[in-house]
């Protein structure tokens, strides 16, 4: 079968690329090695983790804040089997939705492992046995990533686990030891901390979420400490052993002292590695980047071979579903002869803990390093009437603006509903708004979004009203 475009991998990068190709009139096929579409995000990432985050938040509120709201509940219990079942149903509905979208857009779907025979031919080896070949003028590699393994700390999938297994536990851990204070560790760690587990985070750097603006890590650590989570920062993991139901993790403190942690589960969340194996790239002369096994691409996201593109986690840049989606659309439109554009600096980053953390543009540390002249405005949620009404007063909004032009250069938030609130900052920055522009735009009262307006006013001329 001959196509205009073949997409390998059906995660948010791949399926969006396929749909956009089909919308543009290109005859499109998509290959997926698993039986369901959607890749990591829909099956074992973004969607199932949010389902568990929401369920655990309900439980936490029922046991911690309901009484203060004037709601007395008795015998609130965690039913982990039901929680996981609901999560699985959400996943099934969502992945089923992609099957529907493939049909609706007349995209041919193939089950199996796709690999290059030559630059236009893809061999598909079905997991059920059997092989077939399809050809295309253009091929988009969207094979994503998999959890990074530490060479000295192998996961066994039972007691030493990755995020995939952490989404399917049959019991609430007594003591969960987390290696890595990044996005996955903190999201899944907070799920189990809310459900009653003791959670200890071991982080190599001197802050959690270390790549985000430093203010956010500090604030988040305060909130998660209130939740009961413990943090060992600047600590180096040296190994882990399993004996029956017990995991022992050994750690070096910053002073070189040996620390021994004992728990019943250890979750390793130290990043993800590009999934570029088994694609037969050697058959077409594509060599991987030495670090991280990523596929090198040019500014059109085209590999060293004409007509072969790569997008999402398998190439450079943030490993985020929405970045992959933008790249999927970008490549489809490039193949169709258009001249699309992606503003990589304005791809937001979100951590779905509670309070939520969200960020766009430059961090204060990056502006300092660049030597930029900037001004800062912050507004704490403590001063927001809406936040007080909902008892969600942790966190703040911080706006960084150019000292001369007042253009917004970065927005960093931690607080209630910041994952959604960040969209306003992205739009503002895409249209190159100044801090004063935001300060002069009406924001509905009472909403959490007023905190962004107030932080913008604070950055403009220290003109915040409610602080
Ligand atoms: N909400 C979201 O957007 C979301 C959610 C989950 C995952 N993701 C993405 O998936 C990817 C993987 O997430 P992640 O949390 O595994 O990676 P991450 O890069 O966010 O965090 C990994 C953390 O582990 C630390 N670390 C590395 N080696 C260590 C060691 N030996 N000992 C102790 N700490 C160590 C790092 O300093 C870092 O803080 C990320 O790129 C992330 O953006 C995004």
UniProtKB/TrEMBL annotation:
GO terms for molecular function: dihydrolipoyl dehydrogenase (NADH) activity. InterPro entries: Class-I_Pyr_Nuc-Dis_Oxidored, FAD/NAD-bd_sf, FAD/NAD-binding_dom, FAD/NAD-linked_Rdtase_dimer_sf, Lipoamide_DH, Pyr_nuc-diS_OxRdtase, Pyr_nucl-diS_OxRdtase_dimer, Pyr_OxRdtase_I_AS. Its EC number is 1.8.1.4. Its cofactor is FAD. It comes from the Bacteria. Residues 3-328 form the FAD/NAD(P)-binding domain. Residues 347-456 form the Pyridine nucleotide-disulphide oxidoreductase dimerisation domain. The keyword Membrane does not apply. Keywords: Disulfide bond, FAD, Flavoprotein, NAD, Oxidoreductase, Redox-active center. It catalyses: N(6)-[(R)-dihydrolipoyl]-L-lysyl-[protein] + NAD(+) = N(6)-[(R)-lipoyl]-L-lysyl-[protein] + NADH + H(+). Binds 1 FAD per subunit. Gene3D superfamilies: 3.30.390.30, FAD/NAD(P)-binding domain. The active site is a redox-active disulfide bond. PANTHER family: DIHYDROLIPOYL DEHYDROGENASE, MITOCHONDRIAL, DISULFIDE OXIDOREDUCTASE. Belongs to the class-I pyridine nucleotide-disulfide oxidoreductase family. NCBIfam families: lipoamide_DH. This is Dihydrolipoyl dehydrogenase. It comes from Pedobacter segetis.
């Amino acid at each position: 079968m001959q196509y205009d475009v073949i997409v390998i991998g059906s995660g948010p990068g791949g399926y969006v690329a396929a749909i956009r190709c089909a919308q543009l009139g290109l005859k499109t096929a998509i290959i997926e090695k698993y039986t369901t579409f959607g890749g990591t995000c829909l099956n074992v990432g973004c969607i199932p983790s949010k389902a568990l985050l929401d369920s655990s938040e309900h439980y936490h509120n029922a046991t911690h804040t309901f009484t203060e709201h004037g709601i007395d509940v008795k015998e609130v219990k965690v039913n982990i089997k039901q929680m996981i079942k609901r999560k699985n149903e959400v996943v099934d509905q969502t992945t089923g939705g992609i099957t529907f979208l493939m049909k609706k857009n007349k995209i041919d779907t193939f089950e199996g492992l796709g690999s290059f025979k030559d630059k236009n031919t893809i061999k598909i080896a079905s997991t059920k046995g059997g092989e077939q070949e399809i050809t295309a003028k253009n091929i988009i590699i969207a094979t994503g990533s998999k959890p990074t393994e530490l060479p000295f700390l192998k996961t066994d999938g039972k007691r030493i686990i990755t995020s995939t297994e952490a989404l399917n536990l049959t019991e609430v851990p007594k003591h969960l030891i987390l290696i890595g204070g990044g996005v996955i560790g903190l999201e899944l760690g907070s799920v189990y901390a809310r459900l009653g587990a003791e959670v200890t985070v071991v982080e190599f750097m001197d802050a959690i979420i270390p790549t985000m603006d430093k203010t956010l890590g500090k604030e988040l650590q305060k909130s998660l400490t209130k939740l009961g989570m413990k943090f060992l920062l600047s600590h180096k993991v040296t190994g882990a052993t399993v004996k029956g139901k017990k995991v022992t993790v050994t750690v070096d403190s910053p002073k070189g002292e040996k620390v021994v942690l004992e728990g019943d589960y250890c979750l390793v969340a130290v990043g993800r590695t590009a999934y570029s194996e088994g694609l037969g790239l050697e058959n077409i002369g594509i060599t991987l980047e030495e670090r991280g096994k990523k596929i090198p691409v040019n500014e059109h996201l085209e590999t060293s071979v004409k007509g072969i593109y790569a997008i999402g986690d398998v190439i450079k840049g943030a490993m985020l579903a929405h970045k992959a989606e933008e790249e999927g659309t970008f490549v489809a439109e490039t193949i169709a002869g258009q001249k699309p554009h992606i503003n990589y600096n304005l791809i937001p980053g979100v951590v779905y803990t509670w309070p939520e953390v969200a960020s766009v543009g430059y961090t204060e540390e990056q502006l300092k390093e660049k030597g930029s002249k900037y001004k800062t405005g912050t507004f704490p949620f403590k001063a927001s009437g809406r936040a007080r009404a909902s008892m969600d007063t942790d966190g703040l909004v911080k706006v960084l603006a150019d000292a001369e032009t007042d253009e917004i250069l970065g927005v960093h938030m931690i607080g209630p509903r910041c994952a959604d609130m960040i969209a306003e900052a992205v739009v503002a920055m895409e249209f190159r708004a100044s801090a004063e522009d935001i300060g002069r735009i009406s924001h509905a009262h009472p909403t959490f979004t007023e905190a962004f307006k107030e932080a913008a006013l604070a950055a403009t001329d220290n003109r915040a009203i409610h602080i």
